[in-house]
Design the sequence.
């Protein structure tokens, strides 16, 4: 009973619960699968669909509300609000698409998808931020794994909806509505910040989990490719989904093993600690004096340092601390480093989101069947995963061994999607597969590195708010590039094709463009924007070069050592 209680309260079970919540928090990446259904059912043109996509990106990336809420409320409340938003937003979209309610106005649909997509920020803030604070010294690997499971969620959802509902994209929207909400509710009290010293096998556990996640990614890739060439029965889809779920739950056994090892170690240490029975006279006052002299000054000095650093969220705006120390919210938002990150994010994530959201229509314009388009989206999700975990683990290795700045890796991550954009602009046979690989991988790298860099440059005290603020440029970039550039140029090409057939816009329900020219000019522009973002990010590389050459995690190691001493002192006193 004692072990079960410790396991359910421990940080390893919390880590497993966070993986599952993250695996359900990437439903926004499936927009390319069901967007065609929304477009045909509700009679939207491409500009309107891209406007809907932009509000989806707006909701998915503007998480300031969830961040501020997490500063003043417990984690369980943040997860509860997120689950309710997810259920209500996507359920209303499903009701509209299945015509169970009257056709909503466009702004109603924009609101529905914005609310539904915004719920993933509450899941991110609740679980991801808590895990980073519980594993501060291994935040690169932790963030890579957490965001990696988000990247796999698209492929996982695809297998689940095929097993539960069959090949029906309308039912996919229903699955997106109830499953993520259910996951957050199940683990709502397991996600909380804990005070622990560093586990001796911590890095090993992360690598074991990495192997499990890679096996899951390769399994999903194999199943996705097989489903493209082989006609699966419903039983076959159920079998595939079952295998995926078994692998997905493997980290639970890792968590049980590590928590059991910690439980046995703690029990052994408590048994080996000698009883603090004092035989000298007088027993109590004199025996406690040496402990007071040794322990209390160190503890009290730590408290004084912490009290000195206790400042308000919006105070000392123009007295910025050193990089790596805890910035206040406005100190971070008004810094030059954050401004550079904002521009790089606008270019990189804005372009990548635009490419991902238009993937379905890109495949349609180039003559790919709907089943193959679903394959693009699933594979994009898997490449997205590899980008996320690689950026976390590889950047951690490069930083610890050779002091390579993470900001430099981010620069390379901005160059890759420019190549993918050019491949879409000048397509060849199978080019969409190659483009989805480059864009999906680089998107995963950029997103994970953004979160890691913000935590390293501005500290963890207000990380709940700052990492959400760091994404604000993404929906802005998505709106300008997706709606004002790609959407308008696509509609112009589609109108030209209508005019060549002697038709007008009012004579057709759906505005569709077919051919290589549909996305050529717009994706040349996206490639140029990506390259501009890479050039801007080089400024941040120069500014942070000396900082990354220093020991940036020293203060967290010192804090862990202080926690260990405090825990030993408490255990000895209790004994």
Sequence:
């Amino acid at each position: 009973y004692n072990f079960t209680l410790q396991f359910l309260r421990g940080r390893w079970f919390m880590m497993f619960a966070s993986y599952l919540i993250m695996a359900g928090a990437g439903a926004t990446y499936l927009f390319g699968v069901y967007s065609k259904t929304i477009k045909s059912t509700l009679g939207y043109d491409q500009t309107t669909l891209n406007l809907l996509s932009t509000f989806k990106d707006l909701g998915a990336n503007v998480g300031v509300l969830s961040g501020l809420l997490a500063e003043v409320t417990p984690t369980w409340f943040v997860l509860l609000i997120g689950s309710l938003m997810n259920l209500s937003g996507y359920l209303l979209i499903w009701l509209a698409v299945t015509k169970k309610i009257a056709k909503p106005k466009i702004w109603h649909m924009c609101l529905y998808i914005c609310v539904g997509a915004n719920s993933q920020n509450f899941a991110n803030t609740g679980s991801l931020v808590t895990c980073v604070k519980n594993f501060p010294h291994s935040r690169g690997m932790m963030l890579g794994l957490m965001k990696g499971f988000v990247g796999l969620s698209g492929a996982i959802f695809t297998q689940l909806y095929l097993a539960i509902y069959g090949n029906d994209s309308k039912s996919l929207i229903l699955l997106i509505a109830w499953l993520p909400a259910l996951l957050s509710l199940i683990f709502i009290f397991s996600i909380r910040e804990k005070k622990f010293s560093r586990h001796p096998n911590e890095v090993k556990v992360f690598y074991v989990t990495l192997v499990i996640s890679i096996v899951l990614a390769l399994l999903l890739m194999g199943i996705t490719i097989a489903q493209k060439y082989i006609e699966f029965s419903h039983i076959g889809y159920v079998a595939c989904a079952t295998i995926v779920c078994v692998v997905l739950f493997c980290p639970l056994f890792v968590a049980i093993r590590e928590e059991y090892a910690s439980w046995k170690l703690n029990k052994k240490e408590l048994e080996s600690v000698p009883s603090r029975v004092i035989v000298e006279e007088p027993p109590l006052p004199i025996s406690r004096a040496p402990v007071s002299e040794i322990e209390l000054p160190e503890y009290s000095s730590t408290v004084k340092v912490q009290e000195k650093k206790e400042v308000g969220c919006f105070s000392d705006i123009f007295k910025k601390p050193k990089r790596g120390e805890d910035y206040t919210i406005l100190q971070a938002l008004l810094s030059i480093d954050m401004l550079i990150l904002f521009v790089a994010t606008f270019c990189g994530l804005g372009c990548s989101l635009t490419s991902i959201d238009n993937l379905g229509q890109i495949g349609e314009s180039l003559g790919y069947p709907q089943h193959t388009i679903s394959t693009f989206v699933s594979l994009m999700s898997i490449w997205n995963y590899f980008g996320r975990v690689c950026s976390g683990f590889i950047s951690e290795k490069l930083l610890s061994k050779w002091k390579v700045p993470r900001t430099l890796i981010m620069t390379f991550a901005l160059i890759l999607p420019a190549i993918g954009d050019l491949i879409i602009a000048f397509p060849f046979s199978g080019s969409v597969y190659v483009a989805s690989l480059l864009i999906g991988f680089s998107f995963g790298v950029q997103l994970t590195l953004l979160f890691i860099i913000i935590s390293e440059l501005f500290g963890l005290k207000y990380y709940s708010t700052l990492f959400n603020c760091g994404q604000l440029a993404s929906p802005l970039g998505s709106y300008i590039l997706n709606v004002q550039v790609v959407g308008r140029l696509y509609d112009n090409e589609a109108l030209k094709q209508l005019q060549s057939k002697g038709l007008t816009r009012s004579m057709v329900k759906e505005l569709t463009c077919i051919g290589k020219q549909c996305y050529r000019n717009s994706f040349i522009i996206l490639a140029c924007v990506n390259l501009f973002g890479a050039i801007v990010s080089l400024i941040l590389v120069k500014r942070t070069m000396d900082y990354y050459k220093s020991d940036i995690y020293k203060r967290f190691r010192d804090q862990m050592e202080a926690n260990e001493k405090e825990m030993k002192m408490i255990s000895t006193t209790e004994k």
Q: What stands out?
A: The chain is about 80% helix and 0% strand. Confidence is low (pLDDT under 50) at residues 277-309.
